[in-house]
Amino acid sequence: MSMTMQRLHLTHPLHFVIGLTLWCIWFVAVYGGHAVACSVAPPAPEQGVFTLVNAMLLVVSIAAIALLAALTVSCCRMAKRHEGRLRFNATVSAGLYLFSTLGVVFAAMPIMGIPPCL
Amino acid sequence: MTTINREATPQGDDIKGPNQLHNDLHDIWGNPRGLKALTIVNHTALGLRFMVTGMVFFLIGGLLAMLVRTQLALPDQDFMSPDIYNQVTTMHGTVMMFLFAIPMLEGLAIYMIPKMIGARDLVCPRLTSLGYWCYLFGGIILSFSLVLEMAPDSGWFMYTPLSSSEYSPGLGSDFWLLGITFVEISALSAGVELVVSILRTRTQGMALHKMPLFAWYILAMALMIVVGFPPLILGSVLLELERAAGMPFFEVAGGGDPILWQHLFWLFGHPEVYIIFLPAAGIVSTLIPVFAGRPIVGYGWAVFAIIVTGFISFGLWVHHMFTIGIPQLAQAFFSAASMLVAVPTAIQVFVWLATLWLGKPKMKLPMLWIMGFLIIFVCGGLTGVMLALVPFNWQVHDTHFVVAHMHYVLVGGMFFPLIAGLYYWLPLFSGRMPSETLGKWGFWLTFLGFNGTFLIMHWTGLLGMPRRVYSYETGMGWDIFNLLSSMSSFIMSAGIAMVLLDFALHFRFGKPAKHNPWNADTLEWANSMPPSAYNFVSLPKIETRHPLWDNPDLPRTMAEGQHSLAVATHGRREMWGTDPLTGKVREIIHLPGNSWWPLFAAMALAVVCISLLTRLYPLAGIAVVIAGLFLLRWSWENGAHPKAAPDAEVAPGDPPLHSRTMDGPGLWAMSITLLANGSFFLSYLFGWFYLWTVSPEWRMPETSPLSLVGLILAGVALTAGVVILEKRVRGLRQGKDTGLAIGMYCISALGFVQVAITLWVLLSADLAVTETSHDAIIMVGLAYALLHGGLGAVLTLLQGLRVGYGFVGAHAPFEPAVVAQWWRYNLVTFWILVGALAVLPRVIGS
């Protein structure tokens, strides 16, 4: 774990943008994936939310949440080890990863309540 | 400008007196007068030109707004015909968004950023100049349509099919599409150089976490411009191709889809709101600590909020399209994202309030406008959250409620902070103070008039009055509200007129300002007032976020030349190139002097624009070639060219000139330019897959019309060129330049081979570009590949010539590395195009 954290250089300002870039990729993936699924194989309306489309979107979302949450925790740990510029970078990155995590959670909630393609 | 002195940079005892230094620096950096003023590339002069031009367009846009309110003041008015009304409303939105808001804020950033970060100019001064001329010419062309009564009339977002040739057969839509694309060259060029300048030219020691917050906001804005504008440029190109050449991108019968335009427009349009808001919020974050007399509370929170806003604003575009029949689940995603963006905005509001709470605010004139901003913008934000809720959005869609919300956000979020900022920096611009009396009258009239106009407009909208109607019948219950809105709008106009009058009069009658009159903390106040063309005699090392609070003596010691680069005998325009993260000095950046080429290139591009408008395509083609030649000639005067820096000598201990390294700002400028290019390319791919997936009449042939063998051969030539170029660049890094010119010519030849084969594939495909969107979009993709391949080949050919002239080689190895970036980008996008256009259709069919 610590080797992975070192390799990720979590005090680098590039992490200011990675979390939200992952959020954007997730967002495009679920929006685009939903559109393609509805175009290729729309499920029957009577299935409600228990469809393969909802399941796939949920799996992608859970994977994104897990990844972003792990990066949040890692950045928090890294921030505690440094001072000055590096601490600032890691702390802001941790906040941005946390926001991205919660952003996926919040925007993915409708997947559990709204049927696709209607 | 100057003659080059081959003397090395003197240090220590060689330092001259302040007056002599000023005179020497003025000889190098000073602006010419008369006709030669057109050659100025200095950021201070051009920033002012942007802002003055922006204010002129603001007056035009404001006049149009008054016409609209006059028309709507009473029911059944015939003050304007429906045709003219449509032109006036369309042009009001277009002028305010594209010709006022963005250029004005860019102008402020262009003026302020180098001063705030301790630099002497922006990193690409000729690009600043090109941007200004493109803005001016594009704006004039677009505005001229009003005089001709041919202005666009389909609304400022130009929805298809209303803006297509069937329903808008005149030149109005063409004026919009071509004029706006022309103006966007300006926005993109400013975006690129602001990013590179902020990242690479901050003064020594100014690490990222010590950067002024305003620079963070401008960095985010500039990156958003770079990523956000290309989708609209693509949309404009496609729509103009549809109108001029009949390619059916947005026409259902031809396999297109009008909704594609909405996606492309709002992919730009929603981030655009934040592109306007963020710099204005930067002004607020700069002013509040100064007037509260304490550092901002939560600098890190503010940086966090800026970054989140920049990203999330790209995930909201569909909330403008909730009523077009998108599935509920997809709407829910965008509804959630639209609510999310309120979080970083709220964080900023709390940061500002906490700073005011913990400080001792002084309610000077700029603060009055900041308080007005806080009230109006918070209200606009709250109605924004209401509009993020899908059912409510459906109810008020296309009503005056949306118009009111938009003005609360844009006028509250941009105009009020802008005026606050202008009042704040006015003493820096002119050395004089504004009139408190006129300013206060101006504020209160504007504030009351604004709320009287737009608060009431919320109710008019809730009562069901649709937007974009030129008249209404009496008895709908809208009469009194419209009358009050119109009367208030004239009160607002009177307020704005007072503010402008105050600005104009203060240059003549304002009291002379004392130095740093607001007791500010940032470096721009270390300038003379008004500033010199080179900003600072010497460049300081910065240790804190508040240099002037922590070292009030800094302006004096900087002016006396006690810090770095206080020399001018070499005749170069010099400033530091620093590490983007730590602020450590890496190299000396030498900047080009005044130049005619940006003006000439912009004039040629204006001819292209007008020729396309008037359908004189041969002339447009000639003008494109001429513009290209001007731009290439411009690029010739770089690096070791006699007009740039033929002498690389620096004093012992000084870092090298950037053109003698492999890491100059040009590499960064190319990277950021390619980011914009990549955004354009991704938008194109989105269009291809969108039409393929969604368009109801999409027609894809059983077999792809493109020769896969031909495309692979072209790709092989391109790949070989990249491999050889990379090897040459590696050699230059090691100081080897044997056979460099021949190598460059060979690489160029491979580029031309790629172009020739791709052209053969295109011509042999026999595409029916006016019959199906499938063929039309393939044609656009291959044209993109041809353009990039051709430009890569020409640039490499020029590198070969420059090696021959001695401008490039082991002594000046920089430029091939920049060209290599272009080739790498070309390689990646070409193979993606092959995959998307020729391989995927063969694999999965239609």
UniProtKB/TrEMBL annotation, chain A:
Where does the sequence pass through the membrane? 12-32, 52-73, 94-114
Source taxon at top rank: Bacteria
What keywords tag this UniProt record? Membrane, Transmembrane, Transmembrane helix
Q: In its UniProt entry, what is this protein called?
A: Uncharacterized protein
TrEMBL record, chain B:
User: For this protein, what is any one GO molecular function term?
Assistant: metal ion binding
Q: Which gene encodes it?
A: ctaD
Q: Which residues form the Heme-copper oxidase subunit III family profile domain?
A: 585-842
Write down the Gene3D superfamilies for this protein, in alphabetical order: 1.10.287.70, Cytochrome c oxidase-like, subunit I domain (1.20.210.10)
| Protein's pathway | Energy metabolism; oxidative phosphorylation
Transmembrane regions listed in the UniProt entry = 46-68, 88-111, 132-151, 175-199, 211-233, 273-292, 299-320, 332-356, 368-394, 406-426, 438-460, 480-505, 596-613, 619-636, 667-686, 706-726, 738-764, 776-801, 822-844
- Biological process annotations from GO: electron transport coupled proton transport; oxidative phosphorylation; respiratory electron transport chain
Organism equals Vreelandella salicampi
| PANTHER family referenced in this protein's UniProt entry, alphabetically | CYTOCHROME BO(3) UBIQUINOL OXIDASE SUBUNIT 1, CYTOCHROME C OXIDASE SUBUNIT 1
What is the name of this protein? cytochrome-c oxidase
